[in-house]
Amino acid sequence: MKSLGIKMALVVLITSSLIIGYKEKNKEKVLVENIIVENVLYRSDTPANRYEVEQLEAKEETIVYEGLTLEQLGLKIDNVLNSTLDGYGTTIASLAIDKGVDPVVAASIILVETGCKWTCSSLVRNANNVGGMKASSGRYASFATLEDGLEAFINNLANNYYAKGLTTPETINTKYAANPNWHKDVYYYVEAIMSS
Fold first, then answer.
1. Coil/strand/helix, residue 194
2. Region 8-35 average pLDDT
3. Taking Cα atoms as reference points, which of 56, 60, 78 lies closest to residue 69?
4. Which terminus, N or C, of the chain has the lesser number of Cβ atoms within 10 Å?
5. What is the pLDDT, as a whole number, of residue 14?
């Protein structure tokens, strides 16, 4: 019975980190994780519950990027993010991985475009726009929530860059930014994230 208590605490910690990673982007995912926690906490130690615990433990330990778990990668990104984006490292990593985008490059572009290493730009604070994205009107796009802005930015990278073979800061630079040295700023943050 004592080991069950330890596993239950572990599930709560694992689930909490998963919920943090998804925030309110996908309420169904949060609800599913909460049900799992309730099942483990309130039911006896059945084989089905042990299986759920093992699945959550395995999910938490999955390597997602250069020897790092999602939680470890999220923490590395968070170590460089500040201001409005503080605490969104796991969200950025999760969205990028789901779309086949390099999460460290995506986070680095966000840092170059927003200044969120220190204080995020007014575009982030007022319009939840993390990538300097423009709307069809030619004005800067505005998003209802920061999560919407992050998702739109990652989708933009996935659909308009990665899907077209533009997958490195140099190749993205040719289409994304007028400054021919923009990619050097991106690499600065890539290094900062990976060495944090």
1. helix
2. 39
3. 60
4. N
5. 40
Domain boundaries, the chain: 2-61, 71-194
Give, rounded to a whole angstrom, the gap between the first and last alpha carbons of the chain.
Answer: 39
pTM: 0.70
User: What whole-number distance in Å separates Cα of residue 51 and Cα of residue 57?
Assistant: 10
Helix ranges (H only) for the chain are 2-22, 27-42, 47-61, 70-78, 89-99, 103-114, 122-127, 146-160, 169-176, 182-194
Q: How many CB atoms lie within 10 A of CB 103?
A: 28
Structure tokens, 182: 């923009």
pLDDT above 60 for 39: no
Architecture of domain 71-194: Orthogonal Bundle (1.10)
Looking up tokens 């089905």, which residue turns up?
48
Higher pLDDT, 71 or 36: 71
